[in-house]
Amino acid sequence: MRTIHSFNQGWQFYKTKPTQSAGEAVTLPHTWNAVDGQDGGNDYYRGTCWYVRELKKPELRDGERVWLEINGAAMTAEVYFNGEKLARHEGGYSTFRVDLTDHLDENNSLAISVDNSDNDTVYPQKADFTFYGGLYRDVNLLVVPAAHFALGYCGTPGIKVTPIVDLTARCAEVTVEAWVEGEAKEVRFTVDSQTQTAPVEDGHAAAVFTLENVHLWDGVDDPYLYTAVALLDSGDEVSTHFGCRKFEIDAQKGFLLNGRSYPLRGGSRHQDRFGVGNALSLEHHKEDMAIIRELGANTLRLAHYQHAREFYDLCDENGIIVWAEIPYITQHMTGGRANTLSQMEELVVQNYNHPSIAVWGLSNEITAASTVNEELLENHRALNDLCHRLDATRPTTMANVFMLEIESPILEIPDVNSYNLYFGWYLGELEQNDEFFDEFHAKYPDRPIGFSEYGADANPQYQSPMPEKGDYTESYQAVYHEHMLQMIEARPWLWATHVWNLFDFAADGRNEGGKNGQNQKGLVTFDRKEKKDAFYLYKAAWNKTEPFVHLCGSRYVDRTEDVTEIKVYSNQSEVSLYVDGKLAETKSGKTVFKFKLPISGTHSVEARAASCASVMLIRKVDAPNPEYALPGRATVVNWFDQGEIDPDCYSVNDKLGELQQDPQAGTIINQMMSQGAAQHGGDVATAVKDNPGLIRMMSRMTLISLLKQSGASAEQIQQLNRVLQSIKKPQ
Ligand code: GCU
Predict the structure, then answer these.
(1) What is the CA(640)–ligand 1 centre distance, in A?
(2) Whose C-alpha lies nearest to ligand 1, atom 10?
(3) What pLDDT was estimated at residue 671?
(4) Which 8-state DSSP code applies to residue 187?
(5) d(Cα 700, Cα 710) in Å, to the nearest integer?
(6) Which residue of 126, 128, 400 sits with most ligand 1 atoms within 8 Å of its CB, as the best mutation to test the pocket?
(7) Whose CA is nearest to atom 5 of ligand 1?
(8) Which among 453, 468, 458 is positioned nearest to 523, based on CA atoms?
(9) For 589-692, where are the E strands, in sequence order?
């Protein structure tokens, strides 16, 4: 029988090399960037730190072995035992183990160095999240019989279960395999009260079970789990839960679960939280899952790396379908090929049994800072082949950056495609998201396409009656996601869509939106204390079990407008609005309900639907509350009073492509762009010229959005507009 001892207590932490003096007493999980990794300024400590603790030799019976198990050491670790280096592990997100047995004295000293500094071989190196350092997940000591299930290879669970479902026959064929270290003749397998004994050959044993009238793992509706157990004569035993389900991804039908249409609709999650960094407890994981279940999501993209085993377990138990991935991100490194392969091998080997995992993600926006050359393509082919070799049951995918032209050869490597788009936030217009997918789907009708990232930053403090792209208001984030939700609902062939992000997270290089060190695209704040209005939009669309109603803008108390919009999200079909206790209006509809309300003082506003209610107080004020806007950002400048624009002439509100068609207007625009490119060292023009996708995308943007994007002043924009207004459009 194996015993697993928690080994989280009694560590001494040293920010530099260990010395004779005591270090800082710490308990694992631990990160040394819990504070400086989240406060912005890009100054968080990145280097090599040490964890040291003593180990008394455990009582061992006939040939028992002692293994150290480390479930997360970011990013590179070396294990020294009584001064001897026993192991090195490169990759901050996976489990690895070290056999200590033959090095044990009565009293032993264990020292683990952990490094999160810059380098050019271990991913991630360039990305929009904090690279926390530390032993940030549990460490355990395993004592196992001489003959035991494998521990050494890639942090394997030692048991592998492959259920193949036959939906017509309502049965599943379940192959259970196990790998053994030490001398063993046979393995006794048990699945669903059926037992088979199989011989061990070359350290491997397998058995095949048939489950008649199989109880399917059916997503959030019924995430039924079976258990497989493997037992040796030595008494060592391992077990794993597994689920019987059938996933299909079809270019026209989208995602199917157990034969029925099941569009994957959800979001992404980083593994960190305000104040604790990435040293999360099981309670933290459970709280996140509870929020995800409230939202009504049926999928998660666990970005941008391998997450904790406990969280994949929670996805299995809650029926959440998962996109798992490695941190091959942003910029390809020639010296990083081996690391991509080792991180992928560990991700697949360690997580193969989770029924929730549907796809393996090869990379994220890897062409953002790298060209698509043969080296990059080969690295992706090697990863793709590795996934298929280790796992014949799951497809591969990758998240592509919006500038990557849809004709790129890299898109032919993974089994299914997906894009990260930020039209309507970083650049361009919301409608360009619709156009992009319709164009891809029309050009490649036989290629499944997904929407792996989309989002807009929002600080719940910031509010606006005229929300607009880039204002960081909770109001604009809601408007943005209302458009995206409609876009997605009209395209069931999008096999998966993932809001970036479900939770605000640490991006220490950022300082924007009034919060230093955070990416605020979350539907929920970093401390999980505040759900933004957009959270309730998706809850209204996705949560089918808990009736609710939500008044948007409850943080927008001081209102300058005489007639204000009261927006309500609900999963009910009828909403009544009460103002100062009196019924104002009842509306029927779906998800989003909008009311117009004249205000003249302080008002109590209440939305009721079914037996639910949501209440807020608002008041009419003369001057905008300065707390509601980003410091330094003028209250929303309505760049032009639409009455000033002569629609028969060109203006900055026209799209770039249209303007460039006109000989006069086109000359002016091209001059402006080449001047702009010259200012940016010419690379902008080159980059655009060489990228048909970018040209196509920019041609669809309005000139004013491009000008604002490039930081042009209101005066410059008005001056250009005056010139364009002097040019008649062809009738
Ligand atoms: C990218 C990237 C994310 C990042 C996001 C953003 O798509 O994949 O890691 O956080 O954009 O800019 O918010």
Answers:
(1) 32
(2) 128
(3) 80
(4) E
(5) 16
(6) 128
(7) 128
(8) 458
(9) 591-598, 602-609, 612-620
